[in-house]
Specification:
alpha+beta; two-stranded antiparallel sheet; 5-stranded antiparallel β-sheet; 11 strands
Length: 347
């Protein structure tokens, strides 16, 4: 072996061995580092409890859904009424029906319509409008947003209602939800309905929008509400419109709320102010109809005299509505006779 080769082996081989060892250590260290979790993730969720992390929704709500939207009520649709077995009224009762624009009476045990006149035609409904106001109020109470004992400060919406069947509320006063409901349903006070609307939705305009939205959700296709109380609106004095069939279905939804129906059966109620509100329903006050449990009277010049009613006798429940009678006397006499005729018919 030459001196040059011997020198190479003595000097460079140990150097190459050191370099190789260093590279091996570096590659080994890099490999171990790649197997360890990121320190960033450790700082983001220290000691993370995976059971508390949010779980993605299977069907997330669309991004366009407003965050401030109120509760969505998914009330099951009521079965539609069966018009296949309509009966002809006796001659004397048929004569009494002629002055009215429309009417319907239904046996709820079978859902059969016993008699109807123009049942699908939208007609002015006057204070029957308050039935939808009452429904929205009851739904808010059921959702926990309000209670019957809740005291509400009188708003401008109540004090600015035209002086037609009003409590005469003043700013600075308070009325409970129960008192307002009683005034609206027993005596049909218009400012009470406006006060409820303003307190439920923030203002009357938004409440009326809710009324029409809710009507569509419930399948009341003929309904077109323009106020919470039924007073004519605008220069043309337009009424809220609805068919007697849809008013009857709306009344049927209200049957789910016994706390509301109790007001429909009251002849009077005294408020904390000392004022007594009296019922306009002559089927309750004068010559009372046996088993009457609801619902509401209505009148404007254009709507005529209207009435939504419900009666229970021996477990058989009958419900109906009439609209457009020229006088309360004509309306009431026809409804009394119509109810008795309905109970005399076979199921």
């Amino acid at each position: 072996m030459s001196k040059q080769t011997s020198l190479f082996l003595k000097i460079f081989l140990p150097l190459l061995a050191v370099v190789a060892a260093v590279h091996i250590c570096i590659f080994h260290a890099l490999g171990r580092r790649s197997e360890q979790p990121s320190k960033i993730s450790e700082k983001t969720i220290p000691n993370a409890d995976l059971s508390k992390l949010p779980v993605p929704e299977k069907n997330p709500a669309p991004a366009s859904t407003p965050a401030e939207a109120g509760p969505v009520f998914r009330t099951p649709e009521l079965p539609y009424y069966d018009f296949s077995g309509l009966k002809r009224l006796p001659a004397d009762l048929q004569k009494l029906s002629r002055p009215g624009k429309s009417g319907i009476i239904v046996d709820l045990s079978t859902r059969k319509v016993l008699w109807a006149k123009n049942p699908a035609s939208p007609v002015p409904i006057a204070s029957l409008t308050k039935l939808m106001t009452a429904l929205l109020l009851m739904e808010d109470i059921s959702s926990g947003r309000l209670e019957m004992s809740t005291k509400l400060p009188v708003t401008a919406a109540a004090t600015e209602v035209e002086r037609s069947c009003v409590l005469g509320m003043k700013r600075g006063e308070f009325y409970t939800v129960e008192e307002l409901t009683a005034a609206m349903m027993i005596n049909s006070h218009n400012d009470a309905a406006a006060q409820i609307a303003a307190c439920v939705a923030g203002n009357v305009r938004d409440f009326v929008a809710r009324m029409n939205t809710r009507a569509k959700e419930l399948g009341l296709s003929s309904a077109a509400f323009n106020s919470p109380n039924g007073l004519p609106q605008g220069k043309k004095r337009q009424n809220s419109l609805c068919s007697v069939t849809d008013i009857t279905r709306l009344s049927e939804y209200l049957m789910r709320y016994p706390q509301l129906l109790k007001f429909c059966q009251m002849r009077s109620k005294k408020l904390h102010t000392g004022k007594v509100v009296y019922s306009h329903n002559n089927l309750l006050r004068r010559r009372p109809v046996k088993g009457l449990f609801g619902f509401k009277t209505g009148y404007t010049n254009r709507a005529g005299f209207c009435l939504s009613f419900g009666v229970t006798r021996k477990g058989r429940r009958i419900i109906g509505c009439v609209a457009g009678f020229p006088s309360a006397r004509d309306r009431d006499e026809f409804c009394r006779r119509l109810i008795e005729w309905a109970y005399s018919t076979q199921r």
